[in-house]
Design a protein that fits this description.
By secondary structure, the protein is α/β, with parallel strands linked by helices. It has 2 domains: about 180 residues, P-loop containing nucleotide triphosphate hydrolases (Rossmann fold); about 150 residues, Glutathione S-transferase Yfyf (Class Pi), Chain A, domain 2 (Up-down Bundle), CATH 1.20.1050. It is about 40% helix and about 25% strand. Keywords: ATP-binding, Cytoplasm, DNA damage, DNA repair, DNA replication, DNA-binding, Nucleotide-binding, SOS response.
Length: about 375
Amino acid sequence: MKLTDIHLENYRNYEQLALDFSPNLTIFLGENAQGKTNLLESIYVLAMTRSHRTNNEKEFIRWGEDIARIEGNVQKRNSSVKLEMAISAKGKKTKINHLEQRRLSDYIGFLNVILFAPEDLSLVKGSPQVRRRFIDMELGQVNPNYLYQLSQYQTLLKQRNQYLRRINETKKKDEVFLEVLAEQLAESGSFVLFYRYQFLKKLMHWANEIHETISQQKEDLAICYEPSIKVDESMEREELKAVFLEALKKNQARDLMKQTTSVGPHRDDLLFLVNQQNVQTFGSQGQQRTAALSIKLAEIELMNAEIGEYPILLLDDVLSELDDERQIHLMAAIEGKVQTFLTTTSLAHIEDKMKSKPAIFHVSEGKIERKSE
């Protein structure tokens, strides 16, 4: 899978921009706050319809304009796809080969991307919300039904929490309505749980293999799902649903008191073990970063196994955060097989680790100039 070009109109600090890309490594080089990350973000938004940096989509639109547009052509093994996205105050519109898509879940997955930014190094030691978002974003790209069920779950969760607050305000409770909400929440939530378990089982296979290589066979990595209810990966979906429904009923009184839903996939977490020890709590920074790097590289291999093509890799100034040994492992793992876009302020820590010559674009105050060969 390759992104052959991108066209931006009124996106962030770019009024008009058209770039053609190398099928291998493209580097956006420049000082901070010049527009490098905006370029990388535009590729991510074209793929995922949302940003890794902000939830405020108005920020995408150039100051003083009403609409921002991103377009790109994707070359796949057996086909080519044109993707278009328009962002305005009214929302987002997406097109695939000029045909407008009614649902975002029908659009996501035509361009697969893996993003690795400095904040991803805190995947291991960061908050549970960071780890849940990691699962949701990556799993959603390879499983459209997961994305649909997650959206359903989030909508129902919001409805239930709103109703819990309304009961507290009005002192009136409709038990039948609460039961219906719980049933629907357990239905979609059990799908979310089931798919997460399947995804993590596959991810751990690749991550442990890579982690052993980086640590020179001194460490093994395990990823454990930490649910807020008593379920495990051996359960079928219907069993997950039954246990979740029972937990919602059991916790209803507490939920009414706190006016929020206390159990479910939105409360779950991941646990990372290196040599059977909790690396989040007891691991060194080096171990935590090796685990995060192993997981990111594992995503690439997992996605290739799932869809039959390697995704596009976006590296947002992450090499400067890794030591030489981890930089070498990263470059060796991707070179020649994954189209990669990389932002950096300097080539000093990159040039001696690359076998092939990259395409380099200088970025300064929103202006792009390709470095001559």
